[in-house]
Design a protein that fits this description.
With about 150 residues, the chain is mainly α. The chain has one domain. Helices cover about 65% and strands about 0% of the residues. The two termini are about 20 Å apart.
């Protein structure tokens, strides 16, 4: 990813406040995954603005078709994330309030598998399958460390 884009960061901050309010009740790693997801979403949106917009995901690949596929996958993932995460985090907070710690931990882990590690079909895999796949996908994580601190 390119150097931090402060306009994308500000847009992400506004969306995070709108969708989640204060993040301090969530685990730090989850805060960072949310911040990075929303930052990438806003950054991508900014790349698509303007008359001659051309996403960097396309230009960074070896060929145009590969770049277009990568862009399509990334944009679909980010759009789905921003649409579903507010509801998911709301449910997660409800579990915490009700003291359902096992469900809470399982849900947090699944959020990482889907939105941080981007493991395909994570929602239908077993804990064992996910544990086996996580090391492979963790090498592909592109999160900015401590980004959550900049969106508070």
């Amino acid at each position: 990813m390119t150097p931090l884009n402060y306009e994308a960061l500000n847009r992400a901050r506004l969306l995070i406040k709108r969708d989640f309010g204060d993040l301090s009740d969530l685990p730090e790693e989850l805060r960072n995954t949310l911040a990075n997801t929303y930052y990438e979403f806003c950054y991508l949106g900014m790349e698509l603005e303007g008359e001659f917009a051309f996403p960097s995901a396309i230009t960074m690949e070896d060929n145009l078709v590969g770049g277009m596929e990568k862009f399509a996958n990334e944009s679909a993932h980010l759009n789905a994330a921003v649409n579903i995460l507010p509801e998911v985090i709301g449910g997660l907070r409800g579990m915490k309030r009700e003291g359902r710690s096992e469900g809470y931990e399982l849900c947090v882990s699944l959020i990482f598998d889907i939105f941080k590690y981007k493991i395909p079909d994570a929602n239908i895999k077993t804990k064992v399958q996910l544990a086996a796949e996580r090391p492979h996908y963790s090498s592909q994580v592109r999160e900015i460390p401590n980004l959550w601190k900049l969106v508070q």
